[in-house]
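WARN  no MSA supplied for this record, continuing single-sequence
INFO  ligand: NAP
INFO  echoing inputs
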Amino acid sequence: MKPFVGRVVLVTGGGSGIGRATSLAFAKKGAKVIVAGRTREKIVETQEMIGNLGGEAIAIQADVSVGEQVKKMMRTIVDRFGRLDFACNAAGIGGKLAPTADIPEDDFDLTLAINLKGVWLCMKYQIRQMLKQGSGVIVNISSINGLGGTPNAAVYSASKSGVISLTQSAALEYAHSNIRINAVCPGAIRTPMLERVFNETGITQSRYESQIPIKRIGDPNDIANSVTWLCSDEASYITGHVMVIDGGVAAR
Ligand code: NAP
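INFO  complex generated
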């Protein structure tokens, strides 16, 4: 029996990487999936991958940093499915890799607008719907870079720290309303975002892996499996939690 039959999930950033793997993982467990992102071809591709698995999905083009678009996306979801059981807020960008004094102001604004304001906007409208239903689970994708300082990625790091703080605050506010809200902090995961880091820094995969206690780059499914588990009834007593999934890096 698939545990999420009849359940509806929204995955932002669902057109690639962690968001795509998470969309597929929810579909395999029987959920109806709304795949959201800015680039139509990418989200439609994920939708088709779910269709090929025999699952049900729709793709919604939306920029999570624009309030009106997030509001409209939520309206479309409720019109179509009548509810939203789970949300995984994975949309994000890496921002410019540079020391703090060399980061352009517009890059600061864009990184914060997508990575932090975007998560807040999504939660704002997701929580409103979940309050109406009397239940829901949200998982926000932060990063191990949000747990401390990151040279050459100060703004990205700050945005991901903010996601942890938003998650914990909202978890406390809505725990008594049967809405659970957790954050996942991935380490290095093999996605287009990490490929960009390899390309821009010249750091090789083997050098990266040598720094990871488990000695491998993570697979997007390592994150997707944890997100679906956090949404499941097996995790029903977990809220405000910050789950680190990094092959042991943060344990040092
Ligand atoms: P990715 O493949 O680049 O995925 C990011 C997705 O977010 C893309 O599909 C992108 O598609 C979407 N997106 C970006 N800006 C958006 C916006 N304004 N509105 C809607 N969608 C937007 O990278 P990923 O590694 O899977 O990243 C997923 C999440 O994991 C991010 O939050 C990232 O910070 C986090 N993370 C990744 C790693 C890693 O090593 N890969 C580690 C820690 C945390 P469009 O541009 O087409 O919208």
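The domain at 8-240 is CATH 3.40.50.720 (Rossmann fold).
INFO  checksum written, moving to next record
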